[in-house]
Design a protein that fits this description.
The chain has about 220 residues and is an alpha/beta fold. Helices cover about 35% and strands about 20% of the residues. The protein has one domain: TIM Barrel. Helix 5 runs parallel beside helix 6. It starts with 5 loop residues before the first strand and ends with a helix. The structure holds D-xylitol-5-phosphate and zinc ion.
């Protein structure tokens, strides 16, 4: 059975003075997961949000909290993010020197297990862990900010990883993050992605959040 297509709005693009209301709005209008971008100013430029924001989201939404850790040595903090209410924890191959161990720790904490790669990292970097993850996050921009331009060279990587997963772990999802829009979603879908993170195309849509979600969902139908 094909993997379900899902939309995961990234709150990095939300209005933080209205976070509770905006979380309700995405939930009411068909978002599947909430994507929470944690950046430490070391692994990637920008310092975004941390454990207290995950706890706050947990109090106001029933959606799964899909936490994307763009931090060095994530193993030091994954237990705290799990306790705060993360449903998924995704760590980067580039940030963890003991990748299998860190992913196994996430599994033990009861969260869904995600592994991420940056646009400049070859697909081979995730191959050794494909059998122990629930999702592979293929970054389609360099981590740091919302609103960056999609990097098309990531498309063949998505295709390659999907074909490996089909052999080894067909239930695992491929998530894409960065520059996901009405224009890029058909290409990403065709390459084999099925979980679509989107910041600006949802929270900064000129007709509002509902229109943003619907315009992406229409492309998946
Ligand atoms: C980048 C973040 C993304 C970002 C996506 O570091 O991981 O989740 O918020 O934003 P858009 O969809 O605007 O490119
Ligand atoms: Zn992200």
């Amino acid at each position: 059975m094909a993997n379900q297509n899902l939309i995961a709005p990234s709150i990095l693009s939300a209005d933080f003075t209205q976070l509770g209301n905006q979380l309700k709005e995405i939930e009411d209008h068909g978002a599947d997961w909430v994507h929470i971008d944690v950046i430490d100013g070391q692994f990637a430029p920008n310092i975004t949000m941390g454990i207290v924001v995950v706890e706050a989201c947990k109090r106001v939404t029933n959606l799964p909290l899909n936490v994307h850790l763009m931090i060095n040595n994530p193993e030091n903090l994954i237990a705290d993010f799990a306790k705060a209410g993360a449903s998924h924890l995704t760590i980067h191959t580039e940030a963890s020197s003991n990748l299998h161990r860190s992913l196994q720790m996430i599994r033990k904490l009861g969260c869904k297990v995600g592994v991420a790669i940056n646009p400049g990292t070859p697909a081979e970097a995730v191959k050794p862990v494909l059998s122990i993850v629930d999702l592979v996050l293929v970054m389609t921009v360099n981590p740091g900010y919302s609103g960056q331009a999609f990097i098309p060279e990531t498309l063949p990587k998505i295709k390659q990883i999907r074909s490996w997963l089909d052999e080894i772990n067909p239930e695992a999802d491929i998530q894409v993050d960065g520059g996901v829009s009405e224009e890029t979603i058909p290409l990403l879908l065709q390459a084999g992605a099925n979980v679509f993170v989107s910041g600006n195309s949802i929270f900064k849509h000129p007709q509002g959040i509902q229109a943003g979600i619907e315009s992406l969902k229409n492309k998946l139908a």
